[in-house]
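Here we describe the complex-level prediction in full. Unlike the single-chain runs in Section 2.1, the four entities below were treated as one system.
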Amino acid sequence: MKEIGIGVIGTGFMGKAHSIAYSASASVFGTGLRPRLEIVCDLSPERASQRATDLGFSRYSSDWREVVNDPAVELISVCTPNDTHAEISIAALAAGKHVWCEKPMSTTLADSQSMTDAATASSGQTIIGYNYTKNPAVTHARKLIESGAIGRVAAFFCRYDVDNEADGQRPWSWRMSRDRSGTGANGDVLSHVISVGHYLTGSTIKRVVGDIAIVHPERDDPDNPGQQKTVDNDDMVAALVQFENGVHGHIGASRVTWGYKCGLRWEVHGTNGTIIFEQERLNELKLFTRQDDPATDGFRTILTGPQHPPYSAFLPNGGHSLGYMDVKICELHELLTSIESGEPVWPSFSDGLIIEKVMDAVDRSSLSGQWVDV
Amino acid sequence: MKEIGIGVIGTGFMGKAHSIAYSASASVFGTGLRPRLEIVCDLSPERASQRATDLGFSRYSSDWREVVNDPAVELISVCTPNDTHAEISIAALAAGKHVWCEKPMSTTLADSQSMTDAATASSGQTIIGYNYTKNPAVTHARKLIESGAIGRVAAFFCRYDVDNEADGQRPWSWRMSRDRSGTGANGDVLSHVISVGHYLTGSTIKRVVGDIAIVHPERDDPDNPGQQKTVDNDDMVAALVQFENGVHGHIGASRVTWGYKCGLRWEVHGTNGTIIFEQERLNELKLFTRQDDPATDGFRTILTGPQHPPYSAFLPNGGHSLGYMDVKICELHELLTSIESGEPVWPSFSDGLIIEKVMDAVDRSSLSGQWVDV
Amino acid sequence: MKEIGIGVIGTGFMGKAHSIAYSASASVFGTGLRPRLEIVCDLSPERASQRATDLGFSRYSSDWREVVNDPAVELISVCTPNDTHAEISIAALAAGKHVWCEKPMSTTLADSQSMTDAATASSGQTIIGYNYTKNPAVTHARKLIESGAIGRVAAFFCRYDVDNEADGQRPWSWRMSRDRSGTGANGDVLSHVISVGHYLTGSTIKRVVGDIAIVHPERDDPDNPGQQKTVDNDDMVAALVQFENGVHGHIGASRVTWGYKCGLRWEVHGTNGTIIFEQERLNELKLFTRQDDPATDGFRTILTGPQHPPYSAFLPNGGHSLGYMDVKICELHELLTSIESGEPVWPSFSDGLIIEKVMDAVDRSSLSGQWVDV
Amino acid sequence: MKEIGIGVIGTGFMGKAHSIAYSASASVFGTGLRPRLEIVCDLSPERASQRATDLGFSRYSSDWREVVNDPAVELISVCTPNDTHAEISIAALAAGKHVWCEKPMSTTLADSQSMTDAATASSGQTIIGYNYTKNPAVTHARKLIESGAIGRVAAFFCRYDVDNEADGQRPWSWRMSRDRSGTGANGDVLSHVISVGHYLTGSTIKRVVGDIAIVHPERDDPDNPGQQKTVDNDDMVAALVQFENGVHGHIGASRVTWGYKCGLRWEVHGTNGTIIFEQERLNELKLFTRQDDPATDGFRTILTGPQHPPYSAFLPNGGHSLGYMDVKICELHELLTSIESGEPVWPSFSDGLIIEKVMDAVDRSSLSGQWVDV
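The structure predicted for the assembly as a whole is:
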């Protein structure tokens, strides 16, 4: 088994998730490249040191450039705040590394374009962490759609609701500032929705009309007790969309919805059937196709199992359930396979750039009140 | 118990549904006005006669004017094709009758306006048959919203998908022609969505941007074997909407979706909670409100029962389930109560007119590509 | 359309439900015998008079013998307390009437036997109101099973949980006394379970071993404030069962379960598939049969619709939902069809007697701790 | 961070699952003992060597005694066929190791007793892999029950259905022989049910009456084409049970049910509420407790999240879903914590023995037709 040297930059949740994926990948798949955990980086040396121990890395650093320039490192995870993705990724690609960058790609279209240019100029493979397309249930949905199981796709509907900021008593944070964070629910949450739409339809969104709303326009200023501070980016966003291949859809996202915890849910309507999925039940896919006997028609709840690759790398029996972390391992496995084969993986930086352009178009349309071309 | 003389015009499914409601109403509620089935009307005298027998009317006619002018008739059900609603309703109101008119109100805004004018000029009570707001589960949702149980309403999302025309092999029909039928999914299906939105929010939609799609643009011409005929109204329609009271939403409808049979489903997101409903499980309401202990937070599935008026008029125990026909009886009961009290019932003709205006705005916006004020 | 004269004895919920069914039946089905509401009976003349008005009967009485002997009455509903079913039913049959008797059949096996003997000696048709077998979804399940869609039936599992007595603060009532009411959850609730088992398998239970439990053995004595009274019949009952045709199963019931309101749910496991049903979602049937492609295997949720007779007598489109009352109308329709054809309907008194015998066997087994033959 | 040397014996699915858990544990929890993968064992040296590489062990062996006697090894996973558990576990305990043994404990009560005696005589910690009790949702259920959230527990119901042998065309295997494998569905599947019952109630089953069935009594003999071979252990098993603390229940299991893939599902009924769980949706717990306002009563679907330890070791946000493998890591974490603290973990060998005794009692009762004390 060939090894590949790994560097992870950023040790928040995503840095941890990537590290666990690197640890487990070879055990799960037993084939292909075997990750070797070389170096982990955090701005705080103490934390970097601790995380190296916890997560099983050989070395640590508090300077991301050390990771980028480390000759033992071949693949780098960029798990830092969004506004640093571009600089680190571009440097890593320039240094000949492969890059696994978390979503969203960056905080400006210009940065995302530069990242894509850097990837094009490099021999490295790239992937953006749009994880909700890597679940075997979703992969199976894509396969069903491609095979024509539901006919020609006519419509795609998707919402993603979370409760992160649902509590209006939560104080103002930098995420609620256009200057500091760009869009709100759009960048954080809707980006996943767009990735799923592109993945499932095998097409991309070409036109949008959007609408945004700020549900809690004033929040307590954490720095000035008793005062309020203005939220100026979107708590909620919605859009009507048209895809290149003629599919129509509507998409939406909210960071202020009570009750949903990971409320991504989508439907694909085709001329011969319908597929429905809910992320909170990620091991289930609902499929309707016409039966010979209409008296037994109905949505079928398919539980993921060994028939849905790469489920069987994890578990021998259906219905035993993969979790979020397992799907992150699937994502890594696709990247490692891509690095071995030299074939790009979806969504590479150039695929991610298109998603960013749709997010941007939704935002511009929401502000202008016009349909906007992507 | 005071009686009220009934005339039913039209003997298709809706004429039958109204008639059954009239038969059962007094038995169920045991109070208020007792319907007396006077006369039923169908264009075919044979069918009219047969239906009078089946449905328990004293008399029948093949001329709707006889019903309108019948002195024993006080309340008239208009269950005829949509393009006849205006003429019949206006005549009935002019004759001093109360009118229960099926949805959609008519086929043109002008007709709907005339109907509303006639209602205003009359002492009769009117109601449009937007039945999906009369279910005790939905009434309870409205009550929860009004009471502030989920805080300030921020968003309303609703789709209604049916499979009526999902099969692309079904031949062309007059319903697929703008000239003959007006809009497609908009008038047939989205109208219900709008009624639900108005009912739940206690507000009305003021601005929309819409999008329509024709999924099967050519269908077999039933009159010319081997030839195709063009479908020129919407198989699918979607819109972003803004309400008078600041609620944002998206709504959609389709007549070509496989798998959904009566696929109306909606969500209301508030600043303290969320409510979800699916018409195919019409006895269930999902409610999320914050618990003291977040470890026991979760959507609650409320089964309708005696705590949800007027459920207890039908059944003494919860969970025993009302059906579509029972909800039609609830609708009638509201109308009869209105007639007794002299207080208008929602949605009267003037409420229905606003719904028609929203439908029209969605259609105009879909054609113009602009946000449109209602 | 031929008419049939109706007498209803007892005006509680079941008397009302029967009366509504009689009113609606002809309108719904439009064929066959048309009920003519002759006379209704309640012990209180005032109430009887009021109910005659409310429910649309021509006459009323406070003496059930008047109903039984009324020459205009051909079909009698027995909706009185359980310990009066036998006397009234036997008299009605002796008078040449058909009888629709509510469940459970009576309070003793001897009474149920006498009722059966009276039915055998009479030309009248009889039916016991085991309503949960009359729903089109359940009828369809039976049809699927008979057709071999799930292979040979191997197992039947069913529970019925309700919350009627779940609150331990509710005072003692006569229902909690073996002397006054016989068994508890067994007679009230498990009887339905057994009826469903017999109906679906087309066989009958031949051997049982049971277990009972009294969850709240003492309750407040309503007649003696501050004192407690002993509950001596079953709050919960469960049994392992074996059917004549080799099916094995377990069944159970409780009157003290929180959360379930009408919690009848069953599974039938066959050698080629499985069927699942929940009464609280009475318009859905879950069916699993093997697919050619195991990757699309899964339970299908079938919504009742026009393909499931007699749904289409009520509604033209699937998914619109029948309710409890509609299913009661289906039950009546089967009885009227039986009266017209002269063919017995299931469950006649003799079918009901077998159900009573199983209930008795479960109770005896629970007390003796032995397997018991029915 | 202190390390602990690990040996894994057996490299089938469970050996792999244990190994992945050992790899991920420290990364996930970041505290406590850090597993150091020393040696893996498989009867085939080639396979052992390959698995050492894949799974990240330093060494391998084809002789389990080498693992047991390896001084660098402190904790041993026993993932071999059931009839070898006793010999290996006893040797490991005698050598002063801790033991993580897969379920069921062994193939005879005598062996399970010897294992328990060895554990008692040893200072090693032991655990049997009854994984379905280690899920944060289930742990939370136990906590709710202990805290009295649903009052006094009255009933426990649980079934576990799988489709392993549902296809009657599958040939005979040694698992279908009492001589070779002991009981069928009882040992394989019902054992989990019993573990869950003991865990949730905090009590143990004391009396049972059981029933078994062989659904496919003859299967193709894989060694003699065209001939059949007799299945003589249980395809299905069911029992009524009584717990030491007065809870009544029924339990069941089947290896021949179509549709369920990992169909463990249970209910706990208490005097103030009800809890429901389905393993195929392992991140959801359904809880009913009485609300102040009965109009908002209903089962709440709780999604596991950071409020449900140790979920937050894996994921920072609720609803993101743990999978089977994560729960195995939870199980390991409990064992490692036990090793550190010296406090036994549930279910140790002595707890596992009680489960075996219940399985044995169910089997004896099924054969004798009598209630049996455990």
